[in-house]
Structure formats: structure tokens, C-alpha cells
Automatic annotation (TrEMBL):
Name used for this protein in its record: ABC transporter ATP-binding protein
Keywords in alphabetical order: ATP-binding, Nucleotide-binding, Transport
Residue intervals of the ABC transporter domain: 2-209
Origin species: Alteromonas gracilis
PANTHER family per the UniProt record, alphabetical: SPERMIDINE/PUTRESCINE IMPORT ATP-BINDING PROTEIN POTA, SPERMIDINE_PUTRESCINE IMPORT ATP-BINDING PROTEIN POTA
Length: 209
């Protein structure tokens, strides 16, 4: 579970946003609001990437553990952005392997099997050896999702991840993403301007002013 307890984010010591929320395993909390309201800043705070002039009060907990002072790389928080941000000099499989915890990489066959299993989960069987720049936008979005899942995150942050997909793909990739998070019982926070995204997420919605 992700708990946001009495969170206040300040910009130059002035309150930018205030909220409290709990996100159960497999649930998605949606945060909406105009540009500048602090949506992405909230995600940065959860991920441990908040920088001056921003600061935070309150407690962020993952499974009951306060993570406020924990280094970003130790928080086990995965992030998906608007762009897939795949490494173009790597194959699809190498992109996914890069995200895997070190212990999963000790056995090459085990790693390969895990990669193929993840690809099959999003209907991308057999593309592990392809260059990422040969993939369509929708395929890249799916690879980005499973690369995030391959890191075995305890929380996933979604920063407008569907906004650059065309209408035909958007609903499909959105459904895949939410179903994968639910199946793996991973709590998530979605930042979006799109009400359809919020409704599809099916969880609580917080609207920032």
C-alpha cells in the first residue's frame, strides 16, 4: 500500500498542494488539475526526486515504511512518462533486462524466460531481439510498461503516459497498463488531464486547484 499522510509540498516555502490519500495494492489514484498545480511535483516527491525550490512535509509510506529520507534508487518506485524513453542502442530484450534487479540476471536462461514471459503478457511475443526503433508507438508504450514492471516496483507512477498515443491505441494501452498493475497488485498514482484516463483507472480521483 502507498500512503500519503498529511502531505504538503512547498514551492519557495509557500504551500503548493496539500493532500492525504491511501492507494491499495492494484488500485490507481488519479491526480488531475491545471498545469502548475503540482501534479508532476507530487510524483517527484514520491520518487525521491524533489529538488529546490520545492520541499515536502508529511509522510510518504510504502507498505508502512516511511520513505521520505530514502534515496531514490532504494524506494522501488517505477515511473512511466509521456515518452517511452527506451534505449535506442539496445534491443527490446536488452531494454527490459537493464531494468531487472541484479539477482535476476545471474542465470541467462532465467532472464531470457522472464523477458519472454513479460512480452507475451502484452501480446509482443518474439520481439526480444528487435531494435526498439523498429517498433510502432503502441509497441514502444507496451515495452516501456513491462520494462517498468521488470524492475519489480512496489509502486508505479504514471505521468501522462497515454497522452501521445493516438485515439485508437490509447484505450487499448491504457487497459493493458491498468490490468497489469492490478494483476501484480501494484499501487499506482496517475497524473492526467484526460477524464477518460481517470474513469478507466477506476480508483479515487483528486483534483488539484
Amino acid at each position: 500500500m502507498l500512503s500519503l499522510e498529511n502531505i504538503v509540498i512547498y514551492r519557495d516555502k509557500k504551500p503548493l498542494l496539500q493532500l492525504s490519500a491511501e492507494v491499495a495494492k492494484g488500485e490507481v489514484l488519479t491526480v488531475m488539475g491545471p498545469s502548475g498545480a503540482g501534479k508532476s511535483t507530487l510524483l517527484q516527491a514520491i520518487a525521491g526526486q524533489l529538488q529546490a525550490p520545492f520541499s515536502i512535509a508529511g509522510q510518504i509510506k510504502i507498505n508502512g515504511v516511511v520513505i521520505n529520507d530514502m534515496d531514490a534508487h532504494l524506494r522501488k518506485v517505477g515511473i512511466m512518462f509521456q515518452d517511452a524513453l527506451l534505449f535506442e542502442h539496445m534491443t527490446v530484450g536488452e531494454n527490459i533486462a537493464f531494468a531487472m534487479p541484479a539477482d535476476r540476471q545471474k542465470n541467462k536462461q532465467m532472464k531470457r524466460d522472464a523477458i519472454n514471459e513479460l512480452l507475451a503478457a502484452v501480446d509482443l511475443d518474439g520481439i526480444a531481439d528487435r531494435a526498439v526503433n523498429t517498433l510502432s508507438g503502441g509497441q514502444q508504450a507496451r515495452v516501456s510498461l513491462i520494462r517498468t514492471l521488470a524492475s519489480q516496483p512496489e509502486v508505479v507512477l504514471l505521468d501522462e503516459p497515454f497522452s501521445k498515443l493516438d485515439v485508437a491505441l490509447r484505450g487499448q494501452i491504457r487497459s493493458w497498463t491498468f490490468s497489469q498493475l492490478k494483476a501484480r497488485k501494484i499501487p499506482a498514482v496517475l497524473v492526467t488531464h484526460d477524464k477518460d484516463d481517470a474513469l478507466a483507472a477506476g480508483g479515487d480521483i483528486i483534483e488539484l486547484l
